[in-house]
Amino acid sequence: MSRAKGAIVGIGELKPQRLTSGLTTLEMIAEVSRLAVLDAGLEPAAIDGLLVGPQVGETPQHVPATIAEYLGLAPTMANVVDLGGASGAGMVWRAAAAIEAGMCDAVLCVLANNREEVAPRSPNRNPIREFDVPFGASGANISYALLMQAHMAEYGSTARDFALIAAAARANAQLNPDAIFYGKPADVEAVLASPMIASPLHLLEIVMPVAGGEAVVVTSTERARSLRKPPVHLLGAGEKVTHRAVSQAPSLTSGPLKSAMARAFQQSGTRADEMDLLSLYDCYTIMVATTIEDAGLCAPGAFGAWLNDHDLSHKGAKPLNTHGGQLGFGQPDLAGGMTHIVEAVRQLRGEAGERQIGKAGLALVTGNGATMSEATALVLGAA
Amino acid sequence: MPIDLNTLKTAGPTITALTRPFWDAATDGRLTIQHCEECGRAIFYPRPICPHCWSKRLVWKDASGRGRLKSFSEVHKPGHPGWLPAAPYVVGLVELAEGPTMLSFILPGTRPQQIGDMLLLAPTAIGGRVLPAFIPVESRAEEKPQ
Ligand SMILES: [Zn+2]
């Protein structure tokens, strides 16, 4: 017999009701989670893994971050398990696997549902919808503008510093014929001259939404050896989810990628300055700025000087988003974050053609969700 | 001339039984938030359990209405069409004197906003409902909240 994969140590259950007048699913999740964690005799802070179900309507996206924020958790592994009636069992197995993989130590697996007599007219009932939207804050632009303004106030970073990031992305996109901005460079002046959307954020500092798709196949290193293409190895990874709404962010100038990247570097035995490629999630210029600083490539607040000191093209010492990043390539919704992985694989295989970087041994890939809320970092290595 | 915010066709809050005390207080021009009797911390937004210690011993208390501007943005292209007539307008993150941070509408002061500005609660009718907006302290004597 093989050894046990894990153990269930706490349980919670809510008494069934035919109707829940005015209760939200989030409220019920809080109640039942508390019961299970009390039963386990754990402190809430001991929970560092979170598996939740989908919440159709109530919270259409970013469900784990919304629930983590609601519960005051900052898990290092967070996922939706969407397997219908098998979701509960699926969660238990994934929890054990995640613990075995070193992602986390104590996983809360939770499912709940409300049942209204009449479905509410506005089905989206999460805290952002209730406490941000009525004040005039809808959408990600305003949230990232708030982060950018805070960075400028804390460190004296300038509009020009941020514009460098957009201009570099556009420059790199000129070597990617598939990029939406191929043939359409934009320099720092053009970025600064573009319309103000939500101060201090200019139009060209925001990704262009596009249709698209990305996919990768993952297998074991053993199996990979016999396949057609040179494998790209996952050498280390890290994850962290700290909040959902920008008002609840523990910091406006440093994000959960800091700890996710630290874990990825630690697992892979690498350092940020050893990376041959930086494939950094770039929904907005501020996201790249914060990631460069959180990676430890420069001191907090010093990203502008760092950008000025480095050639970010494929020819430079610090190639950054050689596919153009999402700022140059376009953002095919959730697949946008996978463009950074696909490009890293191309570069580490030596298949990037005209934009191939010189030494291609190690790549840092980052992913970011919501408002600097959901973070995953990968260190990839060439075979 | 500034437009009457109360005429905006904006989305109001999606109130639940749990959050109703917050919005009822807002209608009365007050800001009320939950305090945890277990760990002593004030929390925002309302929840059935304290996000710091998971206690259910939460009580509503009126906040002082004082806060500090943690960040802000002047919105030129609103994400919701109902706000277009008001643009540009300012939203900000308000660190309440009690501890937690909330997002709110920031009324114009006598000078441009700066992070670190001290703010005061300024209940304001927006889109047909009184919301807990804020105004920079220095401006309060000169400008009456709408
Ligand atoms: Zn508490």
Ligands bound, unique: zinc ion
Q: Summarize the biggest pleated sheet of chain A.
A: 4 strands, mixed
Portion of residues in helices of chain B?
Answer: under 10%
Shape of chain A: globular
The H/E string of chain B reads HEEEEEEEE
CATH architectural arrangement of the largest domain in chain A: 3-Layer(aba) Sandwich
Description of the structure:
- Chain A has 383 residues and is of the alpha/beta class.
- Chain A has two domains: 6-120 and 211-233, Peroxisomal Thiolase, Chain A, domain 1, CATH 3.40.47.10; 140-204 and 236-382, Peroxisomal Thiolase, Chain A, domain 1 (3-Layer(aba) Sandwich).
- Chain A has helices spanning 25-40, 63-71, 87-100, 127-131, 140-155, 159-173, 188-193, 221-225, 257-268, 285-294, 303-309, 325-329, 336-349, and strands spanning 49-52, 77-80, 107-110, 196-198, 201-202, 232-241, 277-279, 362-369, 374-382.
- The mean pLDDT of chain A is 94.
- Chain B has one domain.
- Chain B has one helix spanning 20-27; strands spanning 32-36, 42-43, 58-62, 66-75, 89-96, 101-106, 118-126, 129-136.
- A five-stranded antiparallel sheet of chain B has the order 6-5-4-7-8, with helices on one face. A three-stranded antiparallel sheet of chain B has the order 2-1-3.
- Chain B starts with 19 loop residues before the first helix and ends in a 10-residue tail after the last strand.
- The interface between A and B is large, with 51 and 52 residues.
- The structure holds zinc ion.
- Zinc ion (ZN) binds at residues 36, 38-39, 41, 50, 52-53, 55 of chain B.
